[in-house]
């Protein structure tokens, strides 16, 4: 019998997996903290021990500009950029100075068919380890 | 390390069964074709780093309270 622990409409499917985790194809974004919808936990449906903290990159950096390649659009099954949502993976340490975010390799989701890919952006502006405190708004 | 110069259409052979050809050259990039046996792993350099960063990113649920604290204190 199949368990229906996860809501199917909320699942996202990585045909190629995430880099280094190619065998894990299905994930679900879950809330981490009730007070925030900016940060989510991307939970594998295959392995309860496998999850990643993901964030909305535009919250960190309003002018974030992830330019995808034609091959990326093909994998997502759309050329319509308005259908896409973006997430970036974080490594959370004990403080924001010790936490990093990977703007170079966003996760892109086609919100219509729930297909997702992790890409490596060509832009040299984005790195795999930006510390979180880089993005703190001045005066806060 | 061996450094050598190749032109468009020229090739390079590594061992007995790996052949790399220069397909296209532009001002800031080179398109290469690699012919190698299936068992030879070929990765773009940045992909290797992306794998390492992803591996470091796996969430340790034991630290969920740290994560919540940082979200509340530093992100909001």
From TrEMBL, chain A:
Domain of life of the source: Bacteria
SUPFAM superfamilies: BH3618-like
A Gene Ontology biological process term: bacterial-type flagellum assembly
CC terms in the record's Gene Ontology section: cytoplasm
UniProt KW RNA-binding keyword: no
UniProt-listed Gene3D superfamilies: BH3618-like
Entry similarity comment: Belongs to the FliW family.
Subunit structure: Interacts with translational regulator CsrA and flagellin(s).
Name under which the protein is recorded: Flagellar assembly factor FliW
Encoding gene per record: fliW
UniProtKB/TrEMBL annotation, chain B:
UniProt entry keywords in alphabetical sequence: Bacterial flagellum biogenesis, Cytoplasm, Repressor, RNA-binding, Translation regulation
InterPro entries given in the database record: CsrA, CsrA_sf
A GO molecular function held by the record: mRNA 5'-UTR binding
SUPFAM superfamilies, sorted: CsrA-like
GO cellular component: cytosol
Gene Ontology BP term (one): mRNA catabolic process
Compartment(s) of residence: Cytoplasm
Main location: cytoplasm
Domain of life: Bacteria
Any single Pfam family the record assigns to this protein: CsrA
Subunit structure: Homodimer; the beta-strands of each monomer intercalate to form a hydrophobic core, while the alpha-helices form wings that extend away from the core.
HAMAP family attached to this UniProt entry: CsrA (MF_00167)
NCBIfam families with a match to the protein in the record: csrA
UniProt record similarity statement: Belongs to the CsrA/RsmA family.
Purpose of the protein: A translational regulator that binds mRNA to regulate translation initiation and/or mRNA stability. Usually binds in the 5'-UTR at or near the Shine-Dalgarno sequence preventing ribosome-binding, thus repressing translation. Its main target seems to be the major flagellin gene, while its function is anatagonized by FliW.
Record-given protein name: Translational regulator CsrA
Source organism per UniProt: Muricomes intestini
Lineage: Bacteria, Bacillati, Bacillota, Clostridia, Lachnospirales
